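User: Structure tokens for both sequences below?

Assistant:
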Amino acid sequence: MRYAIVSDLHANLAAWKTVLADIADMRVDKIICLGDVAGYGPNPVEVLESVYRVVQDTLMGNHDAAVCGKLNPDTFSPRAKAAVLRHRELISQTGMDWLKSLPLMCDAPGFRCSHGDFSNPAGFRYIIDPEDALPSWKATQEQLLFVGHSHLAGIYVIGDSGAPHFVDPCDFELESGKRYIVNPGSVGYPRVGECRSTYCVFDDETKTVTFRQLPFDSDGYRKALKEAGLGDDPWLQQNGTQRRVPWLRDRLSFAKTSAAGQHDQDLHEHARIDLQSSKSHRTPLLILLALAVCAALAAGAYAVRARREAARAAYAVTIPDFDLSSLNAYPLAPPDKNLLPTLPATLSSGARMEGWRYAFDDRTKQSFSAALRDGALLLSVRNAGPYRVRLESPLINLAGTQLHALRLRGRIRKPGVFSGTVFYQLVTYTTESDGTLALGSTHSFEVRDNKRKAPIPTGTLNRKIELGKTVSHVRFRIEASFDGTLEIEQPLLAGEPLKPAAAKEPSE
């Protein structure tokens, strides 16, 4: 039997339709949803109705629990809580009753499913680092487990060595002596990686897991978000997340009768063309002239629109406006040498930050400064409104280091009112035969607030990132979109020692 394992749909109808079409094409026998059908997105009713109709087994996620009243949404981020309250207004009592009836786990021949950690399913604990997977393996006997919740597609593996490790999404076959926890990623809220809808297919006869990654109509999703009053999603604002075919021509109406609400520009264009055409019966030269004018106007309008689109997608100011000289990681003093430049201890107003490259949406409303808090030097970023900011290191040349993995650590604070998201990213590059660099993968991690209450909301990140054999350069980057003040401690990027026991295991 072939199972489609989907998770974290988050009321994104555009993405769910795309995945459903692909599931049909994959000739799947049964669909299992790991939870979070609701939350975040603009179409909770439509997605819930569809899941109810076509999915054989649906589990309860933490957002589903919050919508139906089984979980207090006060622990959620402001955006997530707002969506929960909005969904409560839209979903009928019948829908609420169905959400309340959803189980926390389900069993199938040879594998088991949960939204989060298996040791305490009702606690909705995340499995992110390899060590997070250990309690779930202790609580279960099955060789194969499926979880969602983190939106991070990938595979957690443990073998005879007893050392768990994480593998990026790839198709694989179950091996004797190893156990697996597979996260299929998110259908409707893919806020990491390439921001595509992901799910996986498990074939219990061939014992294989296949990952599927699909683009969806992000423009339609953003339009639906706006109409629902939920605003834009931060992960859609990251570079490369919006995929659209460029316009070649201005829009024209091909309907016999213009519908109500037709754009004024289109109506004016049609009227002008009709007027020129009516006069051109007597003068063929005017026909050519009118067509030339129309073509010029269309080209001009397209150029203006293209420039506006580019201005919205790019940062308004980048300092410096050229790339910095690369840094050499070799010789490396493992494992405590920080490969990243030091953040400034002092930074006067308007001064350039040495060793880093950064970008603003609006420099008049955004600023950097150095701060000292609790004995730690901090880089303080102030946004007087919802703006984006990017901070990135130079390219780091890994030649001669023979590094297999890097450890990324970071800590941020949010003094005062803060609304938005912060992503730490590691971008990898490979060197082509002609010596040029080619972009590889972007490992993106959202730095969320710690669950412990503190006078100042604080978020920490500690991630091990496996490097492919062809990676020659890396770059660290912070992508943040927020309103308020963000304080950044010195980030650490260091070589991760290779454990001898892990080195004996074949790569997954």
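Moving on to the next sequence.
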Amino acid sequence: MLGGDANAFEALYDRRQGGIYRYALRMTGSESVAEDVTQEVFLSLMRDRSDYQASRGTVKSYLYGMARHRLLRLLDREKALVSFDGTDSAAPEAAHDYLHSPHDPFVDLARGEVIDLVRQAVLALPAHFREVIVLCHLQEMNYAEAAEVINCPIGTVRSRLARARTLLGGKLGMLKASAGAFTKINAGRAI
């Protein structure tokens, strides 16, 4: 690809585009931003391919690093793409119990609500905590790969991940509490 082979670029794009897109989507919650960032990363790679140095890391880390820099600049400019006030009371109290039957449309609705609430909670994390959750848990990178993308020591990834899990647990606990209150209020009503 560095030598100008279009087939090699196409193979690289096919292999890495989906991961870069999902990373950007999970960091911002916006499909259009994720599309733009992904396009910018690969256009920049085509334009500035001589900037990549194999001695500094893998192509995967280089691409994620490019996406990360674009996302952090965007997040700094926007400060908050998604607001989260913790008052959404639409979550079912015992969502886990509802998620086992794939044929019930109410189960599908509950599953979608839970997924949306978790997505909101992740998006509400500060960017440096959000990115370790996205990279390690959602993109399934190991600590070393995430550290290479973020350009920090592995210990920093571990400590950020531990703190991010704590913050995420707190946000999800608030959602569970608000869902419990919602359920108690509606307990006697017939549908």
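User: Anything stand out in the second?

Assistant: The helical segments are 6-28, 31-47, 59-78, 95-98, 105-124, 127-138, 143-150, 154-185.
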